Structure formats: C-alpha cells, structure tokens
Amino acid sequence: MNNSNQTLTIKEQLQACRSKEETFKTLVTLSKTLPRLSSEEKTEENKVKGCESAVWLIVEESNGIRHFNADSDAKLMRGVLVAILSLVEGKSIADIQQIDLKAELAELNLSSYLTSSRTNGVLAILEKIQATKQ
Known about the structure:
Blueprint: H1 10-15, H2 20-31, E1 55-62, E2 65-72, H3 75-88, H4 93-98, H5 101-106, H6 116-130
Antiparallel strand pairs: 1-2
C-alpha cells in the first residue's frame, strides 16, 4: 500500500483532488482502509435506512467517546464512509453534535458523487451518527 498519503488528513487528500476521476480514485483507495464488518454485524438493526447501497453503521460508546464501525456493499460508499467517520471517530456525542457535518462534507469535493438518492443515504448516516440514542 502506498503510504505517502498517510501524512495528509483524509480531508486534505480529498481537497487536493482536481478532477472527478481523481476524487473517485481517492475514494476507492480510502475504501480499502475501512475494516469489513462480519456477516453477524450486518444486521437489519445496523443497516442505515434510505441508502441506495447497503450500508451498515455500528455506533459504540465508551466513557462518553463514540467509536464507529461501518461497511457498504459499494466501494464508492465505503470511501465516503471513511471520509465521514474521519470527522467523528473518537469524539464525544456533545462534540459530534457541535460539528456541522453537512458543511464539513461539502468541503470534501464529494458533491459530484452524491446523487440525490446517495445524498439521502448520506443524510441518514449523518443522522444516525449524531443521534443521542443508539
């Protein structure tokens, strides 16, 4: 695996993309860094409703800090999940609720990939991330 991008944050990597193709390649590369969920974790309860692709999101809380595991059957969505989770992983629910996730995502050059149906799915993911109850 090419580690030259490891020093750049995910946000910086995506902002550095100058074309739709470059953004796509970056998302596919990022998708490979997301650990796969087991078939036991891919439950209806963990499935995010409203996504065009199948997306599963597990939210765990430990000492007030949230940790996320996610997966999708679509490579592009897996890359988008990596980008989203990079904004919230290891933060408290209070901190997560202070973040304007929609504005943060808008800065990541993803709009050309978020069709209206994908955008609905991403919004459902953001809602689940920011929900106070599991």
